[in-house]
Amino acid sequence: MINTKKIVVVLPAYNASSTLKKTYNEIPFDIVDAVVLVDDNSTDETLQEARNLGIKYILKHDKNKGYGANQKSCYKKALALGGDIVIMLHPDYQYTPKLIHSMAYLIANNVYPVVMGSRILGKGALRGGMPMYKYVANRFLTLFQNIIIGQKLSEYHTGFRAFSKEVLETLTLEHNSDDFIFDNQMICQIFNKGFEIAEITCPTTYSSESSSINFKRSVTYGVGVLIVSVQYFLHKRKVKLSHIFK
User: Where in this chain does the record put each Glycosyltransferase 2-like domain (predicted)?
Assistant: First the structure.
């Protein structure tokens, strides 16, 4: 805990057996009270590895529901456990758990209600091996989103995020997609409710074991990002209201 606030780390997992142990072992249990792993019907030994590590709260989807659906299960369980600060960490070791201290303290001390680990601040992304086409796409999409949404984030696409209980209880996450675009819908919902987002520099590790979507799905994701941004723009101006921002 920090300032009597319970901290829960959630791991949305899919085929993460080879990196789960390394990720889990770097979680700072001096402040983290509980870890929740949701397995999205992996085809490898993720579930068994989680049990071997002694993770107490393990959920398994009976079928592969998607990245967004996995997060929905993660947050629901974290809140049910009484989490005051919930940190979403990918178990593929692309992001270092060593930043959990910094992210959690910003929320625990009521500085910001949401904190994201940015791969773009500094040179963490390219130094860590992010493919150039993904880096360029990230920069283009982020520029477009900042203009349309009216914010100044360094990136909207990181998978390392921390939330206060108030934020998670306020957002209508069940209205969001079960796919990868969930992340961007969630950010727009956060801004729509008037919450601020802080960012901290996050070193990144890309390897053959890191989870990633192929080029075709990346294009689909990119188009989805543009659509969500425009939906938010139209909703805020009351031109066309969207159900995900209610």
Answer: 9-171
